[in-house]
């Protein structure tokens, strides 16, 4: 039985159109999901939109439409983006779905049954932009002395009757969880932040609101809607059929990985495990917090006029180029800054000039000099074997180990190292010169390259699924060989002996040229 693997992204607020950060998170999660599938795991991958709460209600009021109209329209933009970026989700989740109300209420009732919910009055600071409560001591002041949240967003003093969750009761159990699972939150710096926050003491959490009604009703208290994070986090359960005892729930819960951004760690690493402990449910295995993507060092914002639609980037550079760039350029877990010239440089130097050129040079020689038939092997030399060993180490060990820990840049660094080794090999062996002097050796060299190119293409499938599959199709690599083990097997001789013939190869990675005079 394949080992199950459940991965989720954060669900996005559809109070505006998606931005590059949303694309980044979706691409990283998708790459991980595809990697886990390639290594034979039974994967479930969920993403979606987080549609309740004051932020959505206020935005809708501003636009003169209902929150439902806003979320219907905007949620579709997130789905369109996910589809365009080739995100292989199994479930696109919307928190306004009926079944989600039932699930959130079921979780609520379990927490209530455990004695963890009580009615009181909330008085304190709230940031609508972050949908978060803050303690006075956490606030900072802007230049005019105006109070701001630690994320720099405005806060308002809020006084309201509210249900509370006994978060304070979970301080010790949470600390125990972190002691037992030091990698519960990654990277380690985020784990440290969370641990210090919890060590500092936990106050009970206000978990319902009465001043607006755009949310999930609190069972038995119709004038209250749940705090948006209570229902938002529950999406990870609802998507599996909770509270019903479904096969999906039995197979996939607890989640293997909640992939989120660094600004929402507290909700996932403190509140969420506490809610689950209270409800008597198993806890997710890992929370990974990625960094923020900045545009030339700045946060994208309407006031700076630097908001870029990720669909435009995909259109302009190609989906797989964008995916490759975002995962290759930045260490996953840290912030990164992108620019058009960085995308162009990375794509041209690594995809067009290195990998694309390697494939194109090799396949066009097979096409021209071997009638398109993958050539026969006449005995390997040490140079061939050294190349095989290098590539095998990369695809069998280095890349899987890196993908497994979400070290995407490291996986692609190893991949590029192998591509460089292939390019050095082709230059040294010069098969084009062997055509006249030693036709058999030429064939062996091209066969060697054919094998390693197929292997390296399979290894990069999680990152560039579409282009990789087109290249593998053109090379006649059967679908069942396109995983880490399959492509190491002895598929080449049967292919060489079959009547497969290459079509005239077309470059899969054209150079990107910026129009003259365009500011890159
Ligand atoms: O936080 N770079 O939704 P959201 C990288 N609904 N990632 C970024 C980013 C950037 N510039 N800006 C935001 C929410 N993100 C909640 C989540 S989960 C139960 C509820 C990330 O639309 C952010 O960290 O504000 C989060 O992981 C995701 O995008 C959605 O952010």
From TrEMBL:
<keyword id="KW-0436">Ligase</keyword>
<dbReference type="GO" id="GO:0006431">
    <property type="term" value="P:methionyl-tRNA aminoacylation"/>
</dbReference>
<comment type="similarity">
    <text>Belongs to the class-I aminoacyl-tRNA synthetase family. MetG type 2B subfamily.</text>
</comment>
<dbReference type="InterPro" id="IPR014758">
    <property type="entry name" value="Met-tRNA_synth"/>
</dbReference>
<dbReference type="InterPro" id="IPR041872">
    <property type="entry name" value="Anticodon_Met"/>
</dbReference>
<keyword id="KW-0648">Protein biosynthesis</keyword>
<dbReference type="InterPro" id="IPR001412">
    <property type="entry name" value="aa-tRNA-synth_I_CS"/>
</dbReference>
<dbReference type="InterPro" id="IPR023457">
    <property type="entry name" value="Met-tRNA_synth_2"/>
</dbReference>
<dbReference type="Pfam" id="PF19303">
    <property type="entry name" value="Anticodon_3"/>
</dbReference>
<dbReference type="InterPro" id="IPR014729">
    <property type="entry name" value="Rossmann-like_a/b/a_fold"/>
</dbReference>
<dbReference type="GO" id="GO:0005737">
    <property type="term" value="C:cytoplasm"/>
</dbReference>
<dbReference type="InterPro" id="IPR009080">
    <property type="entry name" value="tRNAsynth_Ia_anticodon-bd"/>
</dbReference>
<comment type="function">
    <text>Is required not only for elongation of protein synthesis but also for the initiation of all mRNA translation through initiator tRNA(fMet) aminoacylation.</text>
</comment>
<protein>
    <recommendedName>
        <fullName>Methionine--tRNA ligase</fullName>
        <ecNumber>6.1.1.10</ecNumber>
    </recommendedName>
</protein>
<dbReference type="GO" id="GO:0005524">
    <property type="term" value="F:ATP binding"/>
</dbReference>
<comment type="subunit">
    <text>Monomer.</text>
</comment>
<dbReference type="GO" id="GO:0004825">
    <property type="term" value="F:methionine-tRNA ligase activity"/>
</dbReference>
<keyword id="KW-0067">ATP-binding</keyword>
<dbReference type="Pfam" id="PF09334">
    <property type="entry name" value="tRNA-synt_1g"/>
</dbReference>
<keyword id="KW-0030">Aminoacyl-tRNA synthetase</keyword>
<feature type="domain" description="Methionyl/Leucyl tRNA synthetase">
    <location>
        <begin position="5"/>
        <end position="363"/>
    </location>
</feature>
<keyword id="KW-0963">Cytoplasm</keyword>
<feature type="domain" description="Methionyl-tRNA synthetase anticodon-binding">
    <location>
        <begin position="381"/>
        <end position="478"/>
    </location>
</feature>
<dbReference type="InterPro" id="IPR015413">
    <property type="entry name" value="Methionyl/Leucyl_tRNA_Synth"/>
</dbReference>
<dbReference type="InterPro" id="IPR033911">
    <property type="entry name" value="MetRS_core"/>
</dbReference>
<keyword id="KW-0547">Nucleotide-binding</keyword>
């Amino acid at each position: 039985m394949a080992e199950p693997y459940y991965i989720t992204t954060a669900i996005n607020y559809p109070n505006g159109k998606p931005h590059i950060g949303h694309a980044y998170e979706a691409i990283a999660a998708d790459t991980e999901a595809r990697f886990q599938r390639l290594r034979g795991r039974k994967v479930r991958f969920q993403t979606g939109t987080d549609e309740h709460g004051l932020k959505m209600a206020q935005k809708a009021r501003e636009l003169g439409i209902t929150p439902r109209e806003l979320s219907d329209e905007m949620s579709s933009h997130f789905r369109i983006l996910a589809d365009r970026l080739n995100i292989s989700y199994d479930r696109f989740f919307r928190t306004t779905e009926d079944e989600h109300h039932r699930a959130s209420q079921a979780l609520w009732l379990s927490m209530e049954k455990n004695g963890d919910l009580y009615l009181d009055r909330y008085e304190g600071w709230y940031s609508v932009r972050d949908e978060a409560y803050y303690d006075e001591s956490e606030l900072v002041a802007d230049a005019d002395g105006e109070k701001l949240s630690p994320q720099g967003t405005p806060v308002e003093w809020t006084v309201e009757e509210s249900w509370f969750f006994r978060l304070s009761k979970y301080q010790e159990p949470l600390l125990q969880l972190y002691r037992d699972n030091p990698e519960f939150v990654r990277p380690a710096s985020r784990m440290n932040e969370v641990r210090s926050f919890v060590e500092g003491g936990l106050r009970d959490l206000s978990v319902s609101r009465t001043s607006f009604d755009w949310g999930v009703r609190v069972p038995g208290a119709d004038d209250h809607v749940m705090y948006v994070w209570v229902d938002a986090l529950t999406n990870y359960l609802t998507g599996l059929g909770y509270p019903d005892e479904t096969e999906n729930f039995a197979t996939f819960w607890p989640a293997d990985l909640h992939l989120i951004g660094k600004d929402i760690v507290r909700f996932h690493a403190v509140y969420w495990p506490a809610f689950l402990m209270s409800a008597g449910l198993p806890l997710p295995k890992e929370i990974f917090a990625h960094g923020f993507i900045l545009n030339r060092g700045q946060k994208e914002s309407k006031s700076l006029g630097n908001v870029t639609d990720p669909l435009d980037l995909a259109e302009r550079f190609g989906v797989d180029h964008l995916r490759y760039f975002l995962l290759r350029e930045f260490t996953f877990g840290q912030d990164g800054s992108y620019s058009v010239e960085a995308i162009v440089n990375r794509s041209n130097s690594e995809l067009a000039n290195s990998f694309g050129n390697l494939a194109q040079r090799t396949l066009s020689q097979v096409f021209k000099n071997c009638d398109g038939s993958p050539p026969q092997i006449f005995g390997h030399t040490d140079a061939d074997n050294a190349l095989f060993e290098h590539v095998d180490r990369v695809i069998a060990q280095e890349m899987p180990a890196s993908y497994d820990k979400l070290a995407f840049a490291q996986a692609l660094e190893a991949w590029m190292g192998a591509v460089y080794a292939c390019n050095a090999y082709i230059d040294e062996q010069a098969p084009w010169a062997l055509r006249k002097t030693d036709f058999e050796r030429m064939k062996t060299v091209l066969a060697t390259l054919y094998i390693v190119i197929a292997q390296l293409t399979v290894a990069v499938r999680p990152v560039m699924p579409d282009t990789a599959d087109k290249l593998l199709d053109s090379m006649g690599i059967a679908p069942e060989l396109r995983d880490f083990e399959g492509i190491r097997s002895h598929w080449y001789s049967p292919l060489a002996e079959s009547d497969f013939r290459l079509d005239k190869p077309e470059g899969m990675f054209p150079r990107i040229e910026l129009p003259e005079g365009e500011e890159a």
